[in-house]
Description:
By secondary structure, this protein is mostly helical. Helix content is 60%, strand content 4%.
Amino acid sequence: MKLYNGWWGNQYVNTISMGKLLKVGGVALAAFNSIISIYNLTSGKTSGLKGYFEAGLSIVSTITGPYGVAASLGYEVGKLHPLKLIGIDATKWFK
């Protein structure tokens, strides 16, 4: 199977579109992230509300597509919030 752009193959060559390839890769990475989040929760690396939220959000983002990805991306960016750089912990309610 080869990856071609704008050509759909013939009886000798099967092709796959770039969109389908990216979708499969994205779902595989999201599933891997879910497995890692659940492992971190069960091994004790993350605990409490934060661990359950990260595991749940990773599973939901894998299933729901673009909306889950947006929520997960917002959560990850929120963990790197600029207030943390000046010493204000904006996530203290979440620990």
